[in-house]
UniProtKB/TrEMBL annotation:
Occurrences of domain GH15-like (ranges): 216-587
Protein name: Glycoside hydrolase family 15 protein
The organism's place on the tree of life at top rank: Bacteria
Taxonomic lineage from the root: Bacteria, Bacillati, Actinomycetota, Actinomycetes, Kitasatosporales
Keyword Aminoacyl-tRNA synthetase annotated: no
Length: 598
C-alpha cells in the first residue's frame, strides 16, 4: 500500500529536498535542484520508479520518528522487545555536489538491516548502468551520475535492477551511507565525511533556529514551520518554492495535480512576511533581491511565478509512464498558470516591499523605480478580469480579492510616499486610484442582501480569500460587512470547522467554479486565515480553538500539505507546502505575539 502523504518527512540541503517515508524509504528526490528530474519517483508511481529503503529486514513502518530538535535531521527508529535500530537521514549543506547521508546505528540487540536502492533517472524512466569504482557503486544515465558508498564498506550486490546491501549492527555500531549526485561527464565527486556532516548539520540548523525571535506558546511548531520554509528556499538565488513536490493530488484519484516546485510571487511574499516577522532578515533580503531580478523589465511582462533562478518559461507537460500518487493522474511537470493574469500579485509585491522597508531592510535604488512602474501598469489593467489567486482554469472574472489587492497596491504606494519624503511619485493619482477601487469593490463585490462580500462581481459564490479583507486594511475588522463576510464563510465554506477555498456545491460537476472536474479538500492556509479573522473580529477564544485543531493536523514531524480531507482524515496536495506553514506561523504570531483582541 502507498504511504499516506503525511507518512513522509522532509530532508533537504537548501537546493533540493527528499521525502522519506515512515518505512525508511526515500521515495522522492530531484537532483540537483528542486525542479530537476527525480531520481527517486516512487512517490508518484511504484518502487520501480526509484526509491531507497533502509530498514531492518522484515520490518514495516517505524515505531518512532522525529527530527532532532530545531534541525532538519531526521531519526527513524524500529524497536522490538529486545532489538532497536535507528536510521538518521540528512542532506548536508552543499559544497559542490548534493549528498544524501544515511547513518544506521544499532541501539539494542543485534539487528540485521537491509538497504535496497533502485535508481531511476528522469522521473523514474531511465534505468542507469551500474559499475564499481574506488569502493563506490556508480550509476550513470545520460547527464546524471550517482555515486554510492558506505563507511565502513559493506557488501553490495545487484539483482533485478536494484542494488542491495545487508549487514548487522549491535549497540553503538554504525554504518553510514553516502549518495552523491554528479554530472556524469565530470570526474568523481569529492568525498564527504558522513559523521562530520551530521555534526555540522545539527549545529548549523540549531544556530539558525536560535535566531527565531518568537518566544510564545507552540514555539516548537512555529520553529518547525520556519525550518520548513527555509528548506523550501533555493539558497543560490533566494527563490522560494511553493512545495517540494509535483502532482500530489488535491483529490485522491483525481486530476488536480500540479507542479509546485516553482516560485510564486504570492506564496513567496507571504513566506517573506513570516520569516521577517520572526527575525530572519537575511532570507528576506535574499528573496527581495531575487524578486528585483525576476521582475526586471517591462511590467506588462510580470509573471505570477518564476523558476528558481527567475526563469520565465515553465511549460506544462505530463509524464504518462508514472501512475500517479494512488493513481491520481496526470503527473504534471511545469505549470501553465505562469501564463495567467492574477492581479492580486501587484498588491502582494507592493505590500511585501513596504514591509521590508519598515523592517529596516536596506532599500535598493531600483526598488522604488520598479514599484512606480508596476503601479503605472496596474492603473491601466486593474479594471480587467483575471484568473484570481486560485488560478482558475475557467473564464476570467472580476475577482473581488484581486480588486482588494489592487487597492492594497495603491494603498502601499501612497503610504510609502507619505512615510518617505525623499521618494517621489504620483501621490494624488494613487490616492484617487485607491479611492476609486475601494468604491467599486464596495459597490460591486458586496452583496447587501446577504451582508457578505462575494467571490466575484455580481456572483453569489463566496471565497475564503475574502477573509483577508481586514488583514489588508481594506476595511476595519469591526465593519459589519467584514463581520458578515466572516460569518457567511463560516456558514457556507466550512467543513468540520476547516475552510474550503470556494463553494463545494459545484465541485462534483464539470462546470465547477474553477473550471476543473472533481473535488478537493479543505484548504489549510484558508483555515488559518479564518482563525486570524476570528481573532481580529474579537472572537479570540474560537480563533485559538481553531488554531489548536489545525496544529492537530500536522503529521508526526510537524509538516502540513496544502489541503486536508476531513472525511478521510488525511492530508492532500503537494507536501510540505509553504502556504500552509506560513499560515501556521502567521496565526501563532497574531494570537500570541501581537495585540490581544477579545
Ligand atoms: O486550483 C487550480 C490551480 O492550483 C494550483 O494553484 C494553487 O497553488 C499555488 C501555489 O501554492 C497557489 O499560489 C494558488 O493560489 C493555488 O490555487 C496550480 O498551481 C495551478 O496551476 C492550478 O490552476
Amino acid at each position: 500500500m502507498h504511504p499516506r502523504i503525511e507518512d513522509y518527512a522532509l530532508i533537504g540541503d537548501h537546493q533540493t529536498a527528499a521525502l522519506v517515508s515512515n518505512r525508511g524509504s526515500i521515495d522522492w528526490l530531484c537532483l540537483p535542484r528542486f525542479d530537476s528530474a527525480a531520481c527517486f519517483a516512487a512517490l508518484l508511481g511504484t518502487e520501480e520508479n526509484g526509491h531507497w529503503r533502509i530498514a531492518p529486514t522484515g520490518a514495516g513502518t517505524c515505531t518512532r520518528r522525529a527530527y532532532r530538535k530545531d534541525t532538519l535531521v531526521l531519526d527513524t527508529e524500529w524497536e522490538t522487545d529486545d532489538r532497536a535500530v535507528r536510521v538518521t537521514d540528512l542532506m548536508p549543506q552543499r559544497d559542490r555536489a548534493p549528498d544524501v547521508v544515511r547513518v544506521v546505528e544499532g541501539l539494542a540487540g543485534r539487528v540485521t538491516v537491509r538497504s535496497t536502492i533502485r535508481l531511476r533517472f528522469d522521473y523514474g524512466s531511465a534505468v542507469p548502468w551500474m559499475r564499481r569504482s574506488d569502493g563506490h557503486r556508480v550509476a550513470v544515465a545520460g547527464p546524471d551520475s550517482v555515486w554510492l558508498r558506505s563507511e565502513p564498506e559493506v557488501r553490495t550486490w545487484s539483482e533485478d535492477r536494484a542494488t542491495y546491501a545487508e549487514f548487522t549492527v549491535e549497540p553503538g555500531e554504525k554504518v553510514a551511507f553516502v549518495l552523491t549526485w554528479h554530472p556524469s561527464h565530470e570526474p568523481r565527486p569529492r568525498l564527504v565525511d558522513p559523521y562530520e556532516s551530521l555534526r555540522t548539520s545539527v549545529h548549523d540548523w540549531r544556530a539558525w533556529a536560535a535566531h527565531c525571535r518568537y518566544d510564545g506558546p507552540y514555539r516548537d511548531e512555529v520553529v518547525r514551520s520556519l525550518i520548513t520554509l527555509k528548506a523550501l528556499t533555493y539558497e543560490p538565488t533566494g527563490g522560494i518554492v511553493a512545495a517540494a513536490t509535483t502532482s500530489l493530488p488535491e483529490e485522491i484519484g483525481g486530476v488536480r495535480n500540479w507542479d509546485y516546485r516553482h516560485c510564486w510571487l504570492r506564496d513567496s511574499t507571504l513566506t517573506l512576511g513570516a520569516l521577517l516577522a520572526c527575525g530572519y532578515q537575511q532570507e528576506a533580503e535574499a528573496w527581495r533581491d531575487w524578486l528585483l531580478r525576476a521582475v526586471a523589465g517591462d511590467p506588462a511582462d510580470l509573471r505570477i511565478m518564476y523558476g528558481l533562478a527567475g526563469e520565465r518559461r515553465l511549460p506544462e507537460y505530463e509524464l504518462p509512464w508514472l501512475a500517479g500518487y494512488e493513481n491520481s493522474r496526470p503527473v504534471r511537470i511545469g505549470n501553465d498558470a505562469i501564463q495567467q493574469r492574477q492581479l492580486d500579485v501587484y498588491g502582494e509585491v507592493m505590500d511585501s516591499l513596504t514591509l521590508s522597508r519598515r523592517s529596516g531592510l536596506p532599500a535598493k535604488p531600483q526598488m522604488w523605480r520598479m514599484q512606480c512602474t508596476l503601479m503605472e501598469y496596474l492603473r491601466s489593467v486593474w479594471r480587467e478580469p483575471d484568473e484570481g489567486l486560485w488560478e482558475v482554469r475557467g473564464p476570467r472574472r472580476h475577482f473581488t480579492h484581486s480588486k482588494v489587492m489592487s487597492w492594497a497596491a495603491a494603498d502601499r504606494a501612497v503610504r510609502t510616499l507619505e512615510d518617505d519624503p525623499e521618494l517621489s511619485g504620483d501621490l494624488d493619482g494613487w490616492r484617487a486610484l485607491r479611492d476609486e477601487i475601494h468604491r467599486e469593490v464596495c459597490a460591486r463585490g458586496y452583496d447587501a442582501e446577504r451582508n457578505t462580500f462575494t467571490q466575484s462581481y455580481g456572483s453569489r459564490e463566496l471565497d475564503a480569500s475574502l477573509l483577508l479583507i481586514p488583514r489588508m486594511g481594506f476595511l476595519p475588522p469591526d465593519d459589519p460587512r467584514v463581520v458578515g463576510t466572516v460569518d457567511a464563510i463560516r456558514e457556507e465554506l466550512c467543513h468540520d470547522g476547516f475552510v474550503r477555498r470556494y463553494s463545494a456545491d459545484h465541485l462534483s460537476s464539470t462546470a465547477s467554479v474553477d473550471g476543473l472536474p472533481g473535488s478537493e479538500g479543505t484548504f489549510l492556509v484558508c483555515s488559518f486565515w479564518l482563525a486570524d479573522a476570528l481573532h481580529l473580529t474579537g472572537r479570540t477564544k474560537e480563533a485559538r480553538e481553531l488554531f489548536e485543531r489545525l496544529l492537530g493536523l500536522t503529521n508526526d514531524v510537524g509538516l502540513l500539505a496544502e489541503e486536508y480531507d476531513p472525511v478521510a482524515g488525511r492530508q492532500l496536495g503537494n507536501f510540505p507546502q509553504a502556504f500552509s506553514h506560513v499560515g501556521l506561523v502567521g496565526t501563532a504570531l497574531a494570537l500570541f505575539d501581537g495585540d490581544e483582541a477579545g
